[in-house]
Amino acid sequence: MVINGRIEELMEKRMFVNIIQNRCVVIMEGYFEWNEKKEPFSLRPKEGDHFLVAGLYTPDNQVIILTKAATPELAKVHHRMPVILSHEEVNVWMNPKNTKDIQNIINKSILKKDK
Fold first, then answer.
1. What is the CATH topology of the domain spanning 4-114?
2. Residue 5 burial (CB count, 10 A)
3. Rounded CA gap, 86 and 9, in Å?
4. Is the separation of the CB atoms in 7 and 67 below 8 Å?
5. Which of 75, 93, 77, 74 minimizes the C-alpha distance to 7?
6. Tens digit of pLDDT for each residue in 64-98?
7. Which tens digits make up the pLDDT trace of 7-58?
8. Closest to 65 in 3D by CA, of 102, 18, 28
9. How far is CA 107 from CA 7, 58, 67, 76, in A?
10. 1 CB neighbour count, 10 Å cutoff
């Protein structure tokens, strides 16, 4: 069972290409990440009360949370992080006919690691 998927591989791996239309948004109040020393860190949004995270679901209803390279602040804890969507991006992400703007979200998520 896969619970995380790299957004960089979304359009390449057969596993993801076959379910790219099965998009969902996972609402999270926060999440835990462990650093190399196995110390847990609780990560919560700076603003608002939840994260809106890009996901996919499989035919047997397993959810895959999409991840990207961590921002510089989070890279100190872990090298990956969930793909967090803005409210505007949720509408784009959830439209199954929308492939061009999905590519923009993928590119934005990949590029954020360099900021």
1. hypothetical protein yedk fold (3.90.1680)
2. 20
3. 21
4. yes
5. 93
6. 999 998 888 889 899 999 999 988 889 889 987 77
7. 888 878 888 888 988 999 999 999 999 988 999 999 998 877 899 999 999 9
8. 28
9. 9, 23, 13, 23
10. 6
- Residue 85's Cβ-side half-sphere holds a number of Cα atoms within 13 Å equal to 26
DSSP state of 63: E
Residue reference for tokens 């959830």 = 94
Q: Could you state, in order of their start, the residue ranges of all structural domains in the chain?
A: 4-114
Task: Write phi, then psi, for 45 (nearest 5 degrees).
Answer: -65, 145
Query: Which structure tokens are listed for 102?
Result: 């999905």
Q: pTM of the full predicted structure?
A: 0.83
Q: What is the DSSP letter of 99?
A: -
